[in-house]
Every structure is written in structure tokens, then in C-alpha cells.
Design brief:
20% helix; two-stranded antiparallel ribbon; alpha+beta; 89 residues
Length: 89
């Protein structure tokens, strides 16, 4: 069996009734990767803290001195230190 990437011979490994193929030349292992651009975007740390704060009522968020997030820049905040996040009613 030839590798679909580089056309070298594939090594085959079998365990029970399962078989796996591997190419020593290019590293191909035959695993399909989903490259769908319609996947949801990942959640930022700020969004995760907000989501947790909303679900539990309040949350303490500790941040190292001097760390600035995009939200801090939008708020024109002078302080980038720890902030307390509380649920808004």
C-alpha cells in the first residue's frame, strides 16, 4: 500500500481486528482532520471569566500586576491589577 502523501510504502500495524497505517518517510498516519472554517471560535479567558461570573453570581478574578487585556484597553483603565467581577442585575 502506498502513502497518499509521498507514495512511499506504508507500514501496517494490527491489533485485534484494527489496522493502522504509518509512513516512515513523511509521518502520515491516516487520521482525518476537520479543517471546517464554520467551527465556533474559541472562548477567550475574559469571556470565560464573564460566563463563570454570570452563572455563579460573582467571581474573584486575580491577575498579575501589569497584565493588560483588550478589555482594559477598551475601558481606558489606568489599573491593570486584580479586578472583582460581580453579576449585574
Amino acid at each position: 500500500m502506498d502513502c497518499p502523501r509521498c507514495e512511499s510504502d506504508l507500514e501496517s500495524y494490527q491489533l485485534g481486528n484494527q489496522t493502522a497505517h504509518h509512513c516512515e518517510e513523511c509521518g502520515f498516519v491516516g487520521i482525518n482532520i476537520n479543517r471546517d472554517p464554520d467551527q465556533p471560535e474559541s472562548e477567550s479567558w475574559e469571556e470565560a471569566f464573564d460566563r463563570i461570573a454570570e452563572s455563579k453570581g460573582e467571581s474573584d478574578m486575580h491577575r498579575a500586576e501589569g497584565v493588560v487585556t483588550p478589555r482594559d484597553m477598551e475601558d481606558d483603565s489606568e489599573s491593570a491589577g486584580p479586578k472583582r467581577v460581580t453579576k449585574k442585575s
